[in-house]
Amino acid sequence: MNALQNITIGHTERLRKPVGYTLLSNLVNIVPFMLSIEAVNIIFKAFDGSGSGLDTTRLWVIFGILVGYMLVMAVAERQSYRHNFRGAYKMSADGRIQLAEHLRRLPLGSLFRHDPGSLASMIISDFTLAETGISHHLPQLMGALVMPVLAFFGLLWVDWRMSVAMFIALPLAILVLTGSTRIQYSLSRRQIEAKVNAGSRLEEYLQGIRVIKAYNLLGGKFERLQKAFADLRRASMRLEALMGPFILLSITLVRAGLTLMILCGAYLLVGGQLSLLTFVMFLIVGSRVFDPLTSALTNFAEFRYFSIAGGRILNLMREPEMTGKKESPEHGDITFEQVSFGYGEKEILHDVSLTLKRGSLTALVGPSGSGKSTLMKLCARFYDPQKGKVMLNGQDMKELEPESLMRHISMVFQDVYLFQDTIKNNIRFGKSDATDEEIEAAARKACCHDFIMRLPGGYDTMVGEGGCTLSGGEKQRLSIARAILKEAPIVLLDEATASLDPENEVEVQKAINTLIEGRTVIVIAHRLKTIRNADKIIVLEDGCIAEQGRHDELLRNQGLYHKLWTIQEKTIGWKLQY
Ligand SMILES: Nc1ncnc2c1ncn2[C@@H]1O[C@H](COP(=O)(O)OP(=O)(O)OP(=O)(O)O)[C@@H](O)[C@H]1O
Q: Which residue has its alpha carbon closest to ligand 1 atom 3?
C-alpha cells in the first residue's frame, strides 16, 4: 500500500482507471486461452478410442470465435494502453507543476536544505521513474498475476493435487522477495541518492566551468565529480549484486513448481488417478503461467525501486508550506519586535527591535557578515524568525498570505538573474500584464532604453541563460526596470554600485533614484557616501544593532559608523601605483 501511495505521489485514486482497464483486458485475454483448451479437448476425444471421430464443426466454430474475438481483444488492449499511459503522463505532468508550485511556497530555509541538483532530479527523473512504474510495470505486474491466480482457482476444481503441486513453491518465492524488502529499500535509496548526487556534481561542474578552468581542476583533478561517479557505480553494483540472488532464488522457486507438477502428474498418471487429457491441460496452463509469474517477480522488485523515487517526491510534497492567510496591508511601517533568527542552530540576528517608517529611506550598514542581508530577507518574509515578530503596519507577517505580501514589495539584488527570454519579457516579470508601452516607459526610467535599442533585436533580443550576454551594470538596470514596473510601495535594495565602472555607476544610481521616489526603501549600503541623506541609518555588528540615527548624529557618536566612514574616506583617496 505504501508503494502504491509513493508511486502515485499520494493519489492512489488515480490508479482506478488504469487498474480497472488492465484487469478488464487481462480477463478478456483469458477467453482465447479457454477456447484453446477446448480445442485440445475435442482433438483428444477424436483419438481416445471411443470412435466418436473429429468434431470439425465444433472446431470451426471455435476458430471463428477466436478470429472474431481478436477485435474485442484489440479494443480492450487499446483501452488499457490508453488509460495506463494517459494516467501516468497526466500524473507526472500535473505532479511536476504541483511540485514546482509547492517549492515556491516553501520557506526558503527548508528549500535551501536541498541541493538544487537534487530538486531538479526529483522533478525530472523521479517523476519519470514513477511514471514508468505506472505506465509499464504496474500493468505488467497485474497482467502477470491475474492469469496465475485465476489458473490456480480454476485448476483446483479440475485436480487439486496437481494444482497444489504447481503453486506450492509460490508462497516461498513471495516470502523471499518480501523478506528482502528492507535490504532492497536501503540499497535502492542509496543508489538513488548516489544518482542524484552525481547529477548535482555534474551540474556544479558545468556551472562552475570557468572557475574549474582557472584553477586547473579539469578532468581527473576534479575529484568531487569523479568521486560522485565512483559512488554511483558502487551503489548500482551493490544493488544488482545483493538483490540479484533474492530475485533469482524466487524465480527458481517458482519454476520448480513446473517440475514438481510434472513429477506429480506422471505419478498420478501411472497410478491411473489422472487422465492424459487433464495432464496435457495442466501442461498447457503451466506453460502460460510460469513465464508471466517470473516476470511478475522481477516487475515486483522494479516496482518497489520506482516507488522509492515516488516516496522522495511525496516527502518533499509533505514539507509544510509557509503559513498565513490574511491579505497583506499595502503599506505601513515595518517593525521588528525582539527578533532573533538563525539559518540553522547558530543564531545570526539577536533580539533586534527597530521600526522602518512608511515612506522613509533606511540604510543598513555594517561589516561583512554582520547580518544586513539576513535582516532584509526577514523584511520580505523569505524566512520567519524563530523568536519575536516582524510586522507590516502592525500585522504579524506570519499571518499574512506570502503572495499577497510579495505583491507590495520590489526587490533589487546584487546578483541579477535574467531568464532565457527576450529583454521585454525579462522586464515584464515585474508585472505580467504590462503593455509594451509600459515596459518601455519603465526601461526609460531605469536608464535601459538606450542600450536596449543598440541591441540587434531591441526589446525582442534574447538574453542568454543567466543573462550572460549583458554587462553587470546593464543587468542591474534591467532588474531596476522590473522593480519600477511593479510599482510596489516597499523597495528592498541591495546596492551593488561598488563593483561597477564609473559610467555604469552613474546610470544605475539615476535608475535607483527613480525607483525609490516616494516609497518605503530599505537599502543595504556598501558605500556610505550614497546614504548620507538617508532618514535612518542602522549600523549592525555581529547580528545586533550597534547604533542607529542620521549620518551626522552617527559621525558625532564616534562609534562603529564613524570608524567605517573613516576607513572608506581613506580608501577613496587611494591610488594604484605602477
Ligand atoms: N543561507 C544561509 N545559510 C546559512 N548561513 C547563512 C546564510 N546566509 C547567510 N548566512 C550567514 O549569516 C551571517 C550573516 O550573513 P549576511 O549575508 O546577512 O551578512 P551581511 O552583513 O549581509 O554580509 P555581506 O555584507 O558580506 O553581504 C553570515 O555569518 C553568513 O555566513
A: 343
